[in-house]
Amino acid sequence: MSFAQSVLSPWLLVLCAAVSLALLAWLMTLRPWQALVNDTALQHRWLAATLGVVVLWQLRAQAVDWLTLHLVFTTLLLLLFKAPLALVSNVLVNVAMVAIGRNDWTLLGVNVLVTGIVPAVVVGLVWRFVDRKLPDNIMLFMFVCGFFGSALATLAGGLSAVGLILIGSQDAHAILLAKEYARFLPLLMPAEAFITGMLLIILMVYHPHWVATFNDQRYIDSQ
Protein backbone atom coordinates (compact mmCIF):
# COMPACT_ATOMS: atom_id res chain seq x y z
CA MET A 1 0.00 0.00 0.00
CA SER A 2 1.32 3.45 -0.94
CA PHE A 3 0.06 6.97 -1.58
CA ALA A 4 -0.37 8.36 -5.10
CA GLN A 5 -1.86 11.76 -4.23
CA SER A 6 -1.80 13.71 -1.01
CA VAL A 7 -4.70 13.63 1.43
CA LEU A 8 -2.40 14.26 4.40
CA SER A 9 -1.80 17.49 6.27
CA PRO A 10 1.35 19.41 5.25
CA TRP A 11 2.85 19.07 8.73
CA LEU A 12 2.65 15.27 8.49
CA LEU A 13 4.23 15.26 5.03
CA VAL A 14 7.13 17.32 6.37
CA LEU A 15 7.49 15.11 9.45
CA CYS A 16 7.53 11.88 7.43
CA ALA A 17 10.00 13.37 4.96
CA ALA A 18 12.25 14.44 7.83
CA VAL A 19 12.13 10.99 9.45
CA SER A 20 12.87 9.25 6.15
CA LEU A 21 15.69 11.65 5.30
CA ALA A 22 17.26 11.33 8.75
CA LEU A 23 17.26 7.53 8.63
CA LEU A 24 18.60 7.43 5.09
CA ALA A 25 21.33 9.89 6.03
CA TRP A 26 22.31 7.59 8.87
CA LEU A 27 22.33 4.61 6.50
CA MET A 28 24.67 6.49 4.19
CA THR A 29 27.17 6.71 7.03
CA LEU A 30 27.36 2.91 6.79
CA ARG A 31 28.63 3.32 3.19
CA PRO A 32 26.48 0.63 1.56
CA TRP A 33 27.97 1.46 -1.83
CA GLN A 34 31.31 -0.05 -0.81
CA ALA A 35 29.91 -3.56 -1.22
CA LEU A 36 28.77 -2.65 -4.73
CA VAL A 37 32.09 -1.13 -5.71
CA ASN A 38 33.98 -4.27 -4.71
CA ASP A 39 31.59 -6.79 -6.27
CA THR A 40 30.53 -6.44 -9.90
CA ALA A 41 28.17 -9.42 -9.69
CA LEU A 42 26.43 -7.83 -6.71
CA GLN A 43 26.01 -4.62 -8.72
CA HIS A 44 24.18 -6.54 -11.44
CA ARG A 45 21.96 -8.43 -8.97
CA TRP A 46 21.08 -5.30 -7.03
CA LEU A 47 20.28 -3.23 -10.11
CA ALA A 48 18.26 -6.06 -11.64
CA ALA A 49 16.30 -6.55 -8.42
CA THR A 50 15.60 -2.80 -8.16
CA LEU A 51 14.42 -2.62 -11.76
CA GLY A 52 12.32 -5.73 -11.26
CA VAL A 53 10.54 -4.15 -8.29
CA VAL A 54 9.88 -1.01 -10.35
CA VAL A 55 8.19 -3.16 -12.98
CA LEU A 56 6.22 -5.21 -10.46
CA TRP A 57 4.96 -2.07 -8.72
CA GLN A 58 3.04 -1.32 -11.92
CA LEU A 59 0.72 -4.22 -11.02
CA ARG A 60 -1.54 -2.36 -8.64
CA ALA A 61 -5.17 -2.02 -7.62
CA GLN A 62 -6.35 1.57 -7.36
CA ALA A 63 -10.02 2.18 -6.60
CA VAL A 64 -9.32 5.79 -5.61
CA ASP A 65 -6.81 8.26 -7.01
CA TRP A 66 -4.77 8.75 -3.85
CA LEU A 67 -4.15 5.23 -2.50
CA THR A 68 -2.89 2.08 -4.23
CA LEU A 69 -2.59 -1.56 -3.26
CA HIS A 70 0.43 -3.43 -4.58
CA LEU A 71 3.14 -5.87 -3.55
CA VAL A 72 6.14 -4.17 -1.95
CA PHE A 73 9.03 -6.73 -1.98
CA THR A 74 10.95 -4.91 0.77
CA THR A 75 11.29 -8.18 2.67
CA LEU A 76 12.94 -9.93 -0.28
CA LEU A 77 15.29 -7.00 -0.90
CA LEU A 78 16.35 -6.90 2.74
CA LEU A 79 16.98 -10.65 2.92
CA LEU A 80 18.99 -10.52 -0.31
CA PHE A 81 21.02 -7.36 0.30
CA LYS A 82 20.50 -6.40 3.98
CA ALA A 83 18.91 -3.17 5.17
CA PRO A 84 21.12 -0.39 3.74
CA LEU A 85 21.04 -1.55 0.12
CA ALA A 86 17.41 -2.65 0.42
CA LEU A 87 16.34 0.81 1.55
CA VAL A 88 18.40 2.50 -1.17
CA SER A 89 16.54 0.27 -3.65
CA ASN A 90 13.23 1.30 -2.12
CA VAL A 91 14.11 4.98 -2.46
CA LEU A 92 15.05 4.48 -6.11
CA VAL A 93 11.80 2.62 -6.76
CA ASN A 94 9.76 5.42 -5.17
CA VAL A 95 11.70 8.03 -7.15
CA ALA A 96 10.92 6.06 -10.32
CA MET A 97 7.22 6.10 -9.41
CA VAL A 98 7.40 9.88 -9.15
CA ALA A 99 9.36 10.20 -12.40
CA ILE A 100 6.82 8.23 -14.43
CA GLY A 101 3.92 10.14 -12.91
CA ARG A 102 2.48 7.38 -10.74
CA ASN A 103 2.95 9.21 -7.42
CA ASP A 104 3.10 12.84 -6.35
CA TRP A 105 6.62 14.03 -5.46
CA THR A 106 5.41 15.54 -2.15
CA LEU A 107 4.64 11.99 -1.00
CA LEU A 108 8.15 10.64 -1.53
CA GLY A 109 9.06 10.76 2.16
CA VAL A 110 5.74 9.22 3.23
CA ASN A 111 5.99 6.38 0.72
CA VAL A 112 9.60 5.61 1.65
CA LEU A 113 8.45 5.40 5.26
CA VAL A 114 5.42 3.20 4.53
CA THR A 115 6.87 0.90 1.87
CA GLY A 116 10.51 0.87 2.94
CA ILE A 117 11.41 1.84 6.47
CA VAL A 118 8.50 0.32 8.40
CA PRO A 119 8.59 -3.06 6.61
CA ALA A 120 12.40 -3.14 6.80
CA VAL A 121 12.34 -2.57 10.57
CA VAL A 122 9.83 -5.39 11.03
CA VAL A 123 11.72 -7.85 8.81
CA GLY A 124 15.02 -6.84 10.39
CA LEU A 125 13.65 -7.66 13.84
CA VAL A 126 12.27 -10.99 12.62
CA TRP A 127 15.61 -11.88 11.02
CA ARG A 128 17.53 -10.93 14.17
CA PHE A 129 15.20 -13.11 16.23
CA VAL A 130 15.73 -16.08 13.90
CA ASP A 131 19.49 -15.47 13.76
CA ARG A 132 19.99 -15.19 17.52
CA LYS A 133 17.20 -17.12 19.22
CA LEU A 134 16.09 -20.00 17.01
CA PRO A 135 17.99 -23.21 16.19
CA ASP A 136 20.14 -23.36 13.05
CA ASN A 137 17.44 -24.88 10.88
CA ILE A 138 17.07 -23.96 7.23
CA MET A 139 13.32 -24.56 7.29
CA LEU A 140 12.89 -22.15 10.19
CA PHE A 141 14.87 -19.52 8.32
CA MET A 142 12.83 -19.93 5.15
CA PHE A 143 9.41 -19.95 6.73
CA VAL A 144 9.90 -17.48 9.58
CA CYS A 145 11.88 -14.92 7.58
CA GLY A 146 10.51 -15.51 4.10
CA PHE A 147 6.84 -16.21 4.74
CA PHE A 148 5.93 -15.00 8.23
CA GLY A 149 8.31 -12.03 8.13
CA SER A 150 6.98 -10.90 4.76
CA ALA A 151 3.35 -11.16 5.88
CA LEU A 152 4.09 -9.26 9.08
CA ALA A 153 5.98 -6.55 7.17
CA THR A 154 3.06 -6.14 4.75
CA LEU A 155 0.66 -5.77 7.65
CA ALA A 156 2.91 -3.22 9.37
CA GLY A 157 3.32 -1.15 6.22
CA GLY A 158 -0.40 -1.18 5.48
CA LEU A 159 -1.36 -0.29 9.04
CA SER A 160 1.16 2.54 9.08
CA ALA A 161 -0.42 3.99 5.91
CA VAL A 162 -3.89 3.74 7.41
CA GLY A 163 -2.63 5.22 10.67
CA LEU A 164 -1.12 8.21 8.90
CA ILE A 165 -4.46 8.92 7.25
CA LEU A 166 -6.32 8.64 10.55
CA ILE A 167 -4.03 11.09 12.34
CA GLY A 168 -3.10 13.41 9.48
CA SER A 169 -6.07 13.78 7.16
CA GLN A 170 -8.89 16.28 7.43
CA ASP A 171 -10.91 14.52 4.73
CA ALA A 172 -13.66 12.45 6.36
CA HIS A 173 -14.22 10.50 3.14
CA ALA A 174 -10.52 9.62 2.92
CA ILE A 175 -10.58 8.39 6.51
CA LEU A 176 -13.59 6.20 5.76
CA LEU A 177 -11.95 4.76 2.64
CA ALA A 178 -8.71 4.10 4.53
CA LYS A 179 -10.62 2.01 7.05
CA GLU A 180 -12.21 0.09 4.18
CA TYR A 181 -8.81 -0.44 2.54
CA ALA A 182 -7.50 -1.86 5.80
CA ARG A 183 -9.85 -4.79 5.27
CA PHE A 184 -7.89 -5.74 2.15
CA LEU A 185 -4.62 -6.15 4.05
CA PRO A 186 -5.32 -9.82 4.88
CA LEU A 187 -5.54 -10.39 1.11
CA LEU A 188 -2.19 -8.73 0.46
CA MET A 189 -0.38 -10.53 3.27
CA PRO A 190 -0.55 -14.11 1.89
CA ALA A 191 0.19 -12.95 -1.66
CA GLU A 192 3.33 -11.07 -0.61
CA ALA A 193 4.37 -13.87 1.74
CA PHE A 194 3.92 -16.58 -0.90
CA ILE A 195 5.82 -14.78 -3.66
CA THR A 196 8.61 -13.65 -1.35
CA GLY A 197 8.91 -17.05 0.29
CA MET A 198 8.99 -18.96 -3.00
CA LEU A 199 11.59 -16.65 -4.55
CA LEU A 200 13.69 -16.93 -1.39
CA ILE A 201 13.53 -20.72 -1.46
CA ILE A 202 14.57 -20.83 -5.13
CA LEU A 203 17.52 -18.55 -4.50
CA MET A 204 18.60 -20.46 -1.40
CA VAL A 205 18.57 -23.74 -3.34
CA TYR A 206 20.40 -22.58 -6.46
CA HIS A 207 22.34 -19.50 -5.32
CA PRO A 208 22.53 -19.41 -1.51
CA HIS A 209 25.43 -16.95 -1.62
CA TRP A 210 23.09 -14.39 -3.18
CA VAL A 211 21.08 -14.21 0.06
CA ALA A 212 23.16 -11.91 2.27
CA THR A 213 21.26 -12.78 5.46
CA PHE A 214 21.67 -16.52 4.92
CA ASN A 215 24.80 -18.31 6.10
CA ASP A 216 24.99 -21.55 4.11
CA GLN A 217 27.88 -22.88 6.21
CA ARG A 218 25.82 -22.43 9.36
CA TYR A 219 22.48 -23.70 8.05
CA ILE A 220 23.66 -26.38 5.58
CA ASP A 221 27.31 -27.42 5.94
CA SER A 222 27.26 -27.72 9.73
CA GLN A 223 24.10 -29.84 9.84
Automatic annotation (TrEMBL):
The keyword Secreted is annotated on this UniProt entry: no
Membrane topology: Multi-pass membrane protein
Pfam families: CbiM
InterPro entries, sorted: CbiM/NikMN (IPR002751)
Subcellular location: Cell membrane
Spans traversing the lipid bilayer: 12-30, 71-93, 105-127, 139-167, 187-206
GO BP terms in the entry: transition metal ion transport
GO cellular component, one term: plasma membrane
UniProt keyword terms in alphabetical order: Cell membrane, Membrane, Transmembrane, Transmembrane helix, Transport
First-listed, main subcellular location of the protein, grouped into a coarse class: membrane
Gene3D superfamilies: 1.10.1760.20
Protein name per its UniProtKB record: Uncharacterized membrane protein
Annotated organism of origin: Vreelandella subglaciescola
Lineage of the species this protein comes from: Bacteria, Pseudomonadati, Pseudomonadota, Gammaproteobacteria, Oceanospirillales
